[in-house]
Write a structure and sequence with these properties.
Radius of gyration: 17 Å
CATH architecture: Alpha-Beta Barrel
Largest sheet: 8 strands, parallel
Number of domains: 1
Order of helices and strands: EHEHHEHEEHEHEHEHH
CATH superfamily: Aldolase class I
Strand content: 15-25%
CATH topology: TIM Barrel
Strand order of the largest sheet: 4-3-2-1-8-7-6-5
Helix content: 40-55%
């Protein structure tokens, strides 16, 4: 059962966010979902919204630097798959879009599930589906080639400790009948019990965001705001590795 970790790039600073993602991969995360900082993140609950605010608090970061950081994650995270979560507004300019390095998938949060991307994508799309959409009617094929599916466990926004809908296994089966790519469950997962339930439902893995970000936020608060960047990066990397290891360890 795969473990996916969501983290917003630049949260707690660029060195720390890179160190956190790299440590999660070393500890056994098989998917890294990298959020690109955005002032109005869609679908995210308060914990991840706060991560975006922290990422943007230091002022505007050049797009080239963000793209270089995504490339660094891809180069340094071994066998872990890397996907990017973003809004189409960040890719509106073809020159900007072309600068984003290839990854294993791009999830564009504000594109309808049944419409092709109106912006250029440098990597295959992650097909974002809710169970309501999947179960409402026969599911048509994806509107364009996709590399993986992100299927919601619950209706609503992200946040830890939400039980998966009773229809999850049925939804996974319906998605798998339409496309052979990996199916990842997200929204509300945080425990090993959630992993076991996802495995029983036939999913490839579970993406965990809010619970992981909360753990990193707590460790950062313990350090204090005056902590040097290098120290913060090292300590948060240690915390990230330990958190993921405790989740994936048999």
């Amino acid at each position: 059962m795969g473990v996916g970790i969501y983290f917003t790039l630049l949260d707690f600073g660029l060195p720390a966010s890179l160190a956190v993602l790299q440590a999660a991969a070393r500890a056994g995360a098989s998917l890294l979902e990298v959020g690109l900082p955005f002032s109005d993140p869609l679908l995210d609950g308060p914990v991840i919204q706060a991560g975006h605010r922290r990422a943007l608090a230091g002022g505007e970061v050049p797009w080239a630097d963000i793209c270089d950081a995504v490339g660094e994650v891809r180069r340094t995270c071994g066998a872990a798959r890397v996907s990017v979560m973003t809004a189409s507004q960040l890719l509106y300019d073809p020159i900007r879009a072309a600068r984003l390095p290839p990854v294993d998938g791009i999830l564009v949060t504000d594109i309808a599930w049944d419409r092709p991307s109106p912006v250029m994508l440098t990597s295959p799309r992650v097909w974002f589906l809710s169970q309501g959409v999947v179960l409402a009617a026969p599911l048509p094929p994806p509107p364009e080639p996709v590399s993986m599916v992100y299927l919601t466990r619950v209706q609503g926004i992200t946040g830890a400790d939400q039980a998966a809908a009773d229809t999850t296994a049925q939804a996974v089966r319906r998605v798998r009948s339409q496309t052979p790519v990996d199916v990842w469950l997200g929204f509300g997962a945080s425990t090993r019990a959630d992993l076991a339930a996802a495995d029983a439902a036939g999913a490839t893995g579970v993406v965990i965001g809010s619970a992981f970000v909360s753990a990193m936020e707590l460790r950062a608060r313990e350090l204090g705001s005056g902590t040097p960047d290098a120290v913060r990066a090292r300590v948060l990397a240690e915390a990230a590795g330990a958190w993921v290891d405790a989740l994936v360890r048999p």
